[in-house]
Amino acid sequence: MDGAKTARSAPHNDAFKHTNAERRVMTTFYDVPAEALIEELSDRLADRIEQPDWAAYAKTGASRELPPEREDFWTIRAASLLRRIAIDGPVGVERLATHYGSAKRGSNRYQVAPPKQTDGSDNLNRTIIQQLEEENLLSQQGDAGRVLTPEGRSFLDETAGDVLSSLTEERPELERYA
């Protein structure tokens, strides 16, 4: 240890010392609750993507009997897909369909068959993903699946920062995370 520099023996540069108030920490989409982030993303995506005419009649999976009833379903699913691809990416349509699937009840008579896992709608997810690719928020990474582009990542993080600032207004105890 004669000539080796250790962390303690390194000279300190006072120019890099900051207090918590001076330091700006980048808020990421991991820092905010998913529900609040998806709602805000949905509002921001409403004018960027458009719901096709057929979506009003399409079910979201084989286990569903009716199409979704919410009017803003398309943008909420798009926001949810954007967040999910950011977390899991690179990810393909088939794996996303499994994520958005649910259990289909077994036999109706006497309930003898156990429920079975069914996938969500591939076409619905694929169409939304293609719209997000047109907005340059996602890109295809060969055969591996879709990933977030740098523009998509900044879109998510900027939205997360706005969500966190609005949450700190409602709940002041969250100020230390801002």
Tags for this model:
single chain, 178 residues, mainly alpha, Arc Repressor Mutant, subunit A, two-stranded antiparallel sheet
How would you describe what is shown here?
The chain has 178 residues and is mainly alpha-helical. The chain has a single domain (34-177), classed as Winged helix-like DNA-binding domain superfamily/Winged helix DNA-binding domain (Arc Repressor Mutant, subunit A). 39% of the residues lie in helices and 7% in strands. It is built from five helices and four strands. It has helices at residues 34-45, 73-88, 93-99, 122-134, 150-170, and strands at 102-104, 116-118, 138-140, 146-148. Strands 1-2 form a two-stranded antiparallel ribbon. The chain has a two-stranded antiparallel ribbon with strand order 3-4. A hairpin with a 5-residue loop joins strand 3 (138-140) and strand 4 (146-148). Helix 1 (34-45) crosses helix 2 and helix 2 (73-88) packs across helix 4. The longest helix is centred in the C-terminal third of the chain and has 21 residues, at 150-170. The two termini are 41 Å apart. Mean pLDDT is 77; it is low at 16-23.
